[in-house]
Specification:
Elements: E1 9-17, H1 20-31, E2 36-43, H2 48-62, E3 68-72, H3 78-81, E4 85-89, H4 91-101, E5 106-110, H5 115-124, E6 128-131, H6 143-156, E7 161-165, H7 171-175, E8 181-184, H8 195-207
Length: 212
């Protein structure tokens, strides 16, 4: 018999972070709203010392809940900032940075151009792969293509995969692909009732029988 699949969990993208103190309340409410596996901290540009301080301040909120904290890029500061790992965009960037993270920290791979890139990332040591997230210009893989890649990966590869939901209506369809985690991006932070309400709604879509 095939063992039951572990419950699917959420992976949160933060906004571009320049003031952790002003973001702390929204982040704490978001973490309490559902089962969150990881938070990806996206850092606004600054000097290295400031970036490290921002990560440390955010880690204090996240890690005490047994939630992993990853940095978007910046693998070189992950250890010094106390992060659990980093998310690298592009298979070349991933391969160049993985030695800074392994064996002690999580190395995640995104921005993968196709199946070949995903397999290369896995062979290089990725702890997870992500499909469907926007690039720095806001462009993303078509939703249908992201679904197809997630289904392919979930069926064939043991390394976890993450599907990026650009809005609430994508959560259920992504869950049905077999993705291990669903990433929630900027839309949760701009929800008129707050991020906690947006995440609670996403959790309902995740738990719906049609999503399983």
């Amino acid at each position: 018999m095939t063992p039951p699949r572990p419950p699917q969990r959420f992976y949160l993208f933060t906004p571009q972070l320049d003031d952790p103190a002003s973001f702390a309340g929204a982040l704490e409410a978001a973490l309490a709203a559902a089962d969150i596996a990881a938070v990806l901290v996206r850092l606004a540009e600054s000097d290295e010392r400031t970036l490290i301080d921002r990560v440390k301040a955010t880690a204090a909120l996240v890690q005490r809940r047994d939630v992993a904290l990853l940095i978007d890029g910046h693998a070189e500061i992950a250890a010094r900032a106390g992060a659990d790992g980093a998310h690298l965009t592009g298979v070349e960037t991933f391969a160049a940075a993985i030695a800074l993270l392994k064996p002690d920290r999580i190395a995640g791979a995104g921005g993968l151009r196709g199946r070949h890139d995903a397999m290369l990332a896995a062979e290089t040591g990725a702890d997870y792969v992500m499909f469907g997230e926007p690039d720095r210009h806001g462009r993303r893989l078509s939703f249908e293509d992201a679904q197809e890649r997630l289904e392919w990966w979930a069926e064939l590869v043991e390394i976890p995969c993450i599907g990026y939901a650009a809005h609430l209506d994508e959560v259920g369809p992504l869950a049905r692909t077999g993705a291990d985690f669903i990433a929630l991006g900027d839309w949760i932070w701009t929800h008129p009732q707050g991020a906690a309400a947006a995440i609670a709604a996403a959790a309902e879509h995740l738990a719906a029988p049609a999503a399983r």
